[in-house]
Amino acid sequence: MKHFPDLPPVWLLLGLVLAWVLATWLPLVRLFGPAWQAAGVLLALAGTGLILWAAWWFWRKRTTIEPHHEPGRLIVEGPYRFSRNPIYLGMLAILTGAVLWHGALSGLPLPFAFAAILTRRFIAPEEAALRRAFGAEAHDYLDRTRRWL
After folding, report:
1. In a 3-state reduction of DSSP, which class is residue 96?
2. 6-17, pLDDT tens digit by residue?
3. Which residues pair with 30 in a beta bridge?
4. Is the pTM of this model over 0.85?
5. Smallest Cα–Cα separation from 127: which of 93, 88, 85?
6. Under DSSP, is residue 59 helix (H, G, I), strand (E, B) or coil?
7. Which one of 29, 60, 71, 107 has the largest count of C-beta atoms within 10 Å of its C-beta?
């Protein structure tokens, strides 16, 4: 894994591929029907919209969106009023939507695993970086705003 690009979109892509593989080769039980497939598509579209909205705020504030870089500004507007991690929440919605669309029982653990990976590999270090960079302002924001929803 020395050359694995440790970035959230790569982990999302891996989750989407795993959702397809599990649904195709090891579905265990098909749980969902057309209504769930439609819900999955809508959830994935909403997640995409949330990602775009949150990313626009990075552009607007002229700060980096790269998870392994030091933050230049603390964004507390837009979707960041409701969630500290709207981009990751959008990615989680996309993966959950894909799992619902595929309808296989075997895919249900994937969103939970993805959330755990995001929390450990990205969110916790990013929150520590925010505290270092912005001190009391970051502490206040992190205390009053939920991590996910």
Report:
1. helix
2. 999 999 999 999
3. 104
4. yes
5. 85
6. helix
7. 107
